[in-house]
Every structure is written in structure tokens, then in C-alpha cells.
Design brief:
Elements lengths: L1 H20 L1 E6 L12 E6 L5 E5 L5 E7 L2 E8 L6 E7 L4 E3 L4
Parallel strand pairs: 1-7
Antiparallel strand pairs: 1-4, 2-3, 2-5, 5-6
Length: about 100
């Protein structure tokens, strides 16, 4: 019984540490007039770990990559009729970064 409680306590502590140490990158993609661009492809690649995630912007041009490790990422946004946009983003522990593309 002691070992079960001890192991459960370790797992809960580790989950709490992960939640505190993860960050996120979010933003909105808009055209030069400020109108949102829905359906734009947004790709995020971790430079140290090589992890890749991708999403599309919603109706208001918004995107979010939650629960990311602290590291350097390359963010690429692409949409038909627009030039691709690339930016390097340094994400610290527990940090949230907003990257807006207009």
C-alpha cells in the first residue's frame, strides 16, 4: 500500500512539473488590410528535438500550439496567394509567445 501511494505521488508531482514547464505558441494570421486568413497552414519544427507539429488557422485566423517544450522553434505560415512567412521563436520554460503574421 505504501509503494502504491508513493508511486501515485511521484506521478502526480511529475504531471504538475510538466504542466508548469510547458509553454505555448499562438497567434493570428491576417492579410495586409487586417482581415483574418482562415485555413492558412502553420507548421512548427523544434530545432533541438526535431519534433514537428502542424495546424490550420481557424475562421478568425487564429492558431495555437499548446504544451510545448522549452526550446527554439521555426514557425512557418503559408497560404495560397501569399508569400510564406518564417520566423525563429525561442520558447522558455512556462512561456507563452504570441506570433502575429500580418
Amino acid at each position: 500500500m505504501f509503494w502504491t501511494r508513493w508511486a501515485a505521488g511521484i506521478l502526480l508531482a511529475a504531471a504538475g512539473l510538466f504542466a508548469q514547464s510547458s509553454g505555448q505558441i499562438a497567434g493570428a494570421v491576417k492579410d495586409p488590410s487586417g482581415a483574418p486568413i482562415p485555413g492558412a497552414a502553420v507548421v512548427l519544427v523544434g530545432q533541438q528535438q526535431g519534433a514537428k507539429a502542424q495546424t490550420s488557422t481557424g475562421a478568425e485566423g487564429n492558431y495555437v500550439f499548446p504544451q510545448l517544450r522549452a526550446e527554439t522553434y521555426e514557425l512557418t505560415v503559408s497560404s495560397v496567394g501569399f508569400e510564406d512567412y518564417k520566423v525563429t521563436v525561442q520558447l522558455g520554460v512556462g512561456q507563452s509567445r504570441a506570433i502575429e503574421k500580418v
